[in-house]
Amino acid sequence: MRNAPTILHLDMDAFYASAEQAAKPSLRGKAVVVGGLGPRGVVATASYEARVFGVHSAMPMAQARRLAPNAAYLVPRFGLYREVSEQVMGLLRGLSPLVEPLSLDEAFVDLEAGGVAWDAESARLVGVKLRADIRTVTGLTGSVGLAASKMLAKIASEEAKPDGLVLIEPGTERAMLGPMSVRTLPGVGPATGDHLRRAGITTVEELAEAGEDELVRLLGKAHGHALYAMALARDERPVVAEREAKSVSVEDTYDVDIHDRTRVGMEVQRLADRCVQRLRGAGLSGRTIVLKVRRYDFSTLTRSETLRGPTDDPAVVREAAARLLDSVDTTGGVRLLGVGVSGLADYTQEDLFAQAHVGAAESVAQEQPETVGAVVSDEPAGEEPAVAERHWRAGHDVRHAEYGHGWVQGSGLGRVTVRFETPDSEPGRVRTFRTDDPNLEPVDPLPLVARRPEAAGAGASGAEETGPEVGVAGSSGGAGECSAGREGSEGGTEESSAVRDGASSGTGGPAARAAGSVAVPAGSGVGGAGVADGVDSEGAGPGGQASSVPARRPKSWSGSGGRGATSRP
């Protein structure tokens, strides 16, 4: 392990929800939940205002609605998130050639390889400037961890959340890790944590004291060895630049099980087309087609077929997926379907005989229950172009010929309700239209921050003005403001939902604006909500449930690396 904290881990704060708040002035400071809005949807990201009510990533959306009934519930807009992610990754690539993205909002950076940091002080200055640059370029905040290894850098960024920076001084790692829960370490989930707790091991220090042999006995050879090394703060993994994708896939989870075989086939064809769109968008082709079917009893079947060569031809992928479906019994109903392509190449093999598969289709049947906290990909299945069916998704961007740019608050009963505002405007007014209004059309999201040529270079002055918070582990000189909180997986399936607006707009007074929030009753239509709930065309309806985030608590770590006293105003 290196002797300087020159590995940086960046994790954007509540990324999807924060992007939505930045794009929609009326949602700033209010509880926002992004994810699948149907009965089987899950939370992708919750804003910090929503987390106050107990909402968190991977939670079933129905549970989130019970905890925070007055939050704004939106489907993801991955076009916007990818654009912002590229801006952030561009800043990281300006620091080093070794940037390892983990997702749209998270990455490791080897600062030493970029020649921009060589000791604790230079690394800290890079982290401070990076946070300021991110805020300038995107309008969003990110948390930064700096350490001598990837594991410790990630732990540091989690401790820095939200909107902070924590640096772990080399030599203080074990003292800092010791009092932390074993769940802090990568790979220790609820099951492993409970197993260790029953053995009397709850902290990292107790994990190290248990010894390698005991951990191997409790957890098995591979897991025991790995966990013991982590407890001793050992991690020699290098930062690997731009990890290659191994597969491209899409899947849909259905609110109601599909029993009709013809419809199942149509869904598979649609998924195959979407998969090829993503494949081509990444400039890739692949030679192994994979079909995933989750049946009514939660058992999951996977079928695959290998072609002669790689392809990005939608007809070839559709035909292969159809052949794979022929070998699957869907009697009893299907709750999830997925189509993927693996064996990727960065070119297209123009082979007229690519569809001739090699050997018989391989099959794997896995009889397993569906996990409670479903892991979701960074793009939800089920995303359809809004214009095709005049289907308006909550949170998506639109433009009206008379009123300009806005976003869909909800739709139902033949009506769509739109709030007209932009990232740099005041909270906008609300109007309701027929869903087939010819003057209303879907459009691409606007940039969160107006682009300026000098934006990326504004970090130095921005750092001074914003006064970034820095916590230094094992150093008496650094005290930072950090709040506990972890960013979970970002994903979820998309279904439309009605959004009822209880927020006061420009016509209300300061008190009304402070108390207002956006409420989303499950299953209601905006056509009904816009009238029955008293939202007029100006959007000045009654205030809803207010939400606020407690101020970040000051945190200091003593010279020994242990965590100091904390307080919350």
UniProtKB/TrEMBL annotation:
Keywords: Cytoplasm, DNA damage, DNA repair, DNA replication, DNA-binding, DNA-directed DNA polymerase, Magnesium, Metal-binding, Mutator protein, Nucleotidyltransferase, Transferase
Organism of derivation: Streptomyces avermitilis
Cofactor section: Mg(2+)
Active site per the UniProt annotation: 106
Annotated region described as Disordered, given as residue ranges: 422-569
GO biological process assignments: DNA repair; DNA-templated DNA replication; error-prone translesion synthesis; SOS response
Name of the top EC class for this enzyme: transferase
Positions of the UmuC domain: 7-189
Catalysed reaction, written as an equation: DNA(n) + a 2'-deoxyribonucleoside 5'-triphosphate = DNA(n+1) + diphosphate
Biased composition (Low complexity): 455-473, 510-523
Pfam families: IMS, IMS_C, IMS_HHH_1
Chief localization: cytoplasm
Name this protein carries in UniProt: DNA polymerase IV
Compositional bias annotation for Gly residues: 559-569
UniProt-listed InterPro entries: DNA/RNA_pol_sf, DNA_pol_Y-fam_lit_finger_sf, DNA_pol_Y-fam_little_finger, DNA_polymerase-Y, DNApol_IV, IMS_HHH_1, Rev_trsase/Diguanyl_cyclase, UmuC
Biased composition (Basic and acidic residues): 426-437
Residues annotated as binding Mg(2+): 11, 105
Gene: dinB
Similarity remark: Belongs to the DNA polymerase type-Y family.
Summary of the function given for this chain in its UniProt record: Poorly processive, error-prone DNA polymerase involved in untargeted mutagenesis. Copies undamaged DNA at stalled replication forks, which arise in vivo from mismatched or misaligned primer ends. These misaligned primers can be extended by PolIV. Exhibits no 3'-5' exonuclease (proofreading) activity. May be involved in translesional synthesis, in conjunction with the beta clamp from PolIII.
GO molecular function: damaged DNA binding; DNA-directed DNA polymerase activity; magnesium ion binding
Lineage: Bacteria, Bacillati, Actinomycetota, Actinomycetes, Kitasatosporales
EC number: 2.7.7.7
Gene Ontology cellular component list: cytosol
Subunit structure: Monomer.
Record's subcellular location: Cytoplasm
Entries under NCBIfam families matching the protein: PRK02406.1 (NF002677), PRK03348.1 (NF002882)
